[in-house]
Amino acid sequence: MENSWISIKNVRFVRNRRPILDDISWDIRPGEHWVVLGANGSGKTTLLQILAGYLWPTSGDVTVLGERFGEVDLRALRRKIGWVGSFLQAQVPPSQRPLEFIVSGKYASLGIFDKPEAEDFEEAARLAARLGCGNILDLPYAVLSQGEKQRLLIARALIHKPRLLILDEPCGGLDLVSREQLLLTLESQGRIPGGPAMILVTHYLEEIMPVFSHVFLLKSGGCAAKGKKDQILRPDLLTQAFGIPIEAGGENGRYWTRVLPVKN
Ligand SMILES: Nc1ncnc2c1ncn2[C@@H]1O[C@H](COP(=O)(O)OP(=O)(O)OP(=O)(O)O)[C@@H](O)[C@H]1O
Ligand SMILES: [Mg+2]
Predict the structure, then answer these.
(1) CA 19 – ligand 2 centroid, Å
(2) Of 126, 161, 196, which residue is a domain's last?
(3) Across the chain, what does the average pLDDT equal?
(4) pTM of the complete model
(5) pLDDT for the residue numbered 3
(6) 243 Cα: distance to centroid of ligand 1 (angstroms)
(7) CATH code of residue 207
(8) Residue 103 sits in the same domain as residue 124
(9) Across the beta sheet with 6-15, what order do the strands follow?
(10) Which atom of ligand 1 lies at the shortest distance from residue 49's CA?
């Protein structure tokens, strides 16, 4: 679709003869921020890896930021996408300083021959301040708290000015206060004019901030429902997608859920 930032049509992803994603179609338009919900193993991370050009679908069409897979240099595409996921944390040298870590986000995507410049470090410091981690810049990565690491990961993803920011369970391991602070940071990040579209994967409706406008609900690799947030975050659709009775509601732009006892 012309005016979509992301358009996925009839995507299938098969591994070991098992369809991990089946007949997924999805359009993301400018100004929309999406949440992806679904049980463990339902295919959320796989779907986002396809979007980000890390996995190739078995069949179907993927157009991201106007570039159709198959016609585009995937390295160039990845540069336009910021990824915040847990896998990166394990690869960080323990003694690395926060600003170096943030700057590495720019050069990881460009190649080893590019040397960071002073202005990269200035931009990293600005981003760190904006994301609420400007006070830990003297500490080595290894001693930082989970919440501080997550903020650095987001800063690292933002330094190359992506047009799409993928957040795969960014609140994992955060206490209630740190989680709320990180969510408020996402809320303001999502409202920056001209900022990247965000896609958030979470297991908790409590983490869906008002800035997120749409929800994609996955069930066993298929689309259970997708659309405007209020039309999808309904007890009946959630119950269907997760296979257990779920109560859900909203208040002041935020959501809650309660799993009901299963009757025998
Ligand atoms: N390369 C692969 N080969 C075989 N199976 C795979 C491969 N990659 C993923 N899978 C399987 O595909 C399914 C979907 O995995 P995926 O990581 O996308 O789920 P998810 O929805 O992100 O789950 P979680 O909530 O636990 O992160 C899982 O059952 C997983 O075991
Ligand atoms: Mg996952």
Answers:
(1) 16
(2) 161
(3) 90
(4) 0.93
(5) 66
(6) 19
(7) 3.40.50.300
(8) yes
(9) 18-28, 6-15, 59-64, 67-68
(10) 18
**Does an H or E element contain 76, and which?**
helix 74-78
Q: If you average pLDDT over residues 191-219, what whole number do you get?
A: 96
**How far is the centre of ligand 1, averaged over its atoms, from the C-alpha of 40 (Å)?**
8
Whether 172 lines ligand 1, by a CB cut-off of 6 Å, is no
pLDDT more than 90, % of the chain: 72
Distance CA 194, CA 98 (A): 26
In 79-134, at which residue ranges do the beta strands (DSSP E only) sit?
Answer: 81-84
Per-residue pLDDT band at 115 (split at 50, 70, 90): confident
Q: Which atom of ligand 1 is nearest to the CA of 20?
A: 12
Alpha carbons 8 and 26: distance in angstroms, whole number: 5
Range of the domain at 127: 96-161
Among protein residues, the one whose CA lies closest to atom 26 of ligand 1 = 40
User: HSE-up of 102 (CA within 13 Å, CB side)?
Assistant: 30
In a domain, residue 253? The reply is no
38 C-beta closer than 6 A to ligand 1: yes
Task: For residue range 39-69, list pLDDT tens digits in order.
Answer: 999 999 999 999 988 899 999 999 988 888 7
Distance CA 53, CA 67 (A): 11
**In terms of domains, do 35 and 76 share one?**
yes
Residue 249 has pLDDT above 80, yes or no: yes
Tokens of 164: 């799409």
Is pLDDT at 111 greater than 60 in this prediction? no
Q: Where are the beta strands (DSSP E) in the chain?
A: 6-15, 18-28, 34-37, 59-64, 67-68, 81-84, 164-168, 197-201, 214-219, 222-228, 246-251, 254-259
